[in-house]
Each structure stands twice: as C-alpha cells, then as structure tokens.
Design a protein that fits this description.
The chain is built from one helix and 14 strands; from the N terminus they run βββββββββββββαβ. The chain has a ten-stranded mixed beta sheet with strand order 1-2-3-4-6-8-9-11-13-14, with no helix packed on it. The chain has a two-stranded parallel sheet with strand order 5-7. With about 220 residues, it is an all-beta fold. Strand 13, helix 1 and strand 14 form a beta-alpha-beta unit. About 0% of the residues lie in helices and about 20% in strands.
Amino acid sequence: SECRWDGQLLLNCSFTRISTIPEDTSQTAVTADLSYNNIKTFVCSDGRNEEWMLKHLNLSNNLISELTLTTCTNLPNLETLNLSGNAIHTLTLEMPTPAHGSKKYSIVDRLLPALKVLSVERNNLNTVPRGLGLLQSLQTVHMSSNAIQQIDPKDFQNCSQLKDIDLRNNRISKIHPDAFRDLKKLQVVVDLRENALTIPLPQILVSLNFFQLEVYLSKNAR
C-alpha cells in the first residue's frame, strides 16, 4: 500500500485511498492514522486475538456505516479512537444478554479498558450509543453534529470517569432528569449548543459539580 511506516511507532495511511486495513499492519504501531480513505468496515480482531500496541487510532472521514466494538479485545492499550466524519448510524458496544447461567459474554469485561477519548462527531447517530459505561476509562466523548433526539437515563449510566461531553449540533429536545446522575467526575464541559431544547435544565444540572462545570446552551429553541 502507499502507507508510510516509520519502522517502529507510527503508521500513516491518511489520504491513500485504501478501502481496507492493510494486512501487513504492524502490531507494534502505537499510532495509526487511517483517515480520509474509502474504508467501509473495520473489524478489531481477526480471530487470533493477538494484542496490538495501539494507543491512538484515527479512522475519521471514511465510509463506515456500522461498527461493532465488542470484538476489540485485542486493543488493551487504546486510549483515543477517532470515528468522526463517517456515516455511522449503528455503534454497538453492548453484547447480547447471555442465557441464564451462561458466561459466554464475560469477554466484554475486556472491552477497550484504556480508552479515554471517543470521537463520533459528524455521523448519522440518532441515539447515544448504548453501553458507554462498559468503557471503564472513558473521560471524553464527542458526539456533535449527529441526529440524536433525546438523552435517556441509561445513556451515560456507569460512566463514572466521564469528564467532558460534547452533544452540540444535534436534534436534542428532551433530556431525562437523571441522565447525568452517575457522572460524579463531570467537571469540564457539557456542550448542548445548537439543539432543540425548549426548557431550562435545573433538574438535570442540580447534582453536577457547578464549581468546575461549564454548560453551554446557546442556539437552542428556547
């Protein structure tokens, strides 16, 4: 492929018009830039489940429409995942509920344990991806410029490390009063600009850390 490899840490495949992940990609790469290509599908594990050293993966500005992260048990060191500028309408984090007494899906406990930043801006999401709470180290989530219509009480459930949420430029008209209740470390920004909110949000914000929190609400319907 036309990818550039520095021989040790950085794989740069940006603007190379590839449609699939190069098969000869080194598992020792720490940063992989696959942005601005024609990639339609991305599968984390090839079945061998050999661990990669990747910390930063950029898949922005491709053609991905559906993505399942529940197979990503081979990326234990991944800290940032950039999926912005795709056509993602389905982002799967949760695994099916196992049969009674079965431990078939316990592998989900190893789902991207080091991931701190998830970017899914400029996609086609109409809901917050279910299962964000499974990403135990998640601190920042960028979901601006999608088609999200409401925030439900379980959307950010168990996101105990989350500090920064960007929901700007969606279609949000309703936020459940308990939507941010579990976010005890939320301290940077809740960006709700350019949505369809029509009412003030005192019930939603009452349990948050006002001393460090910035809440942006401009350009709403109210």
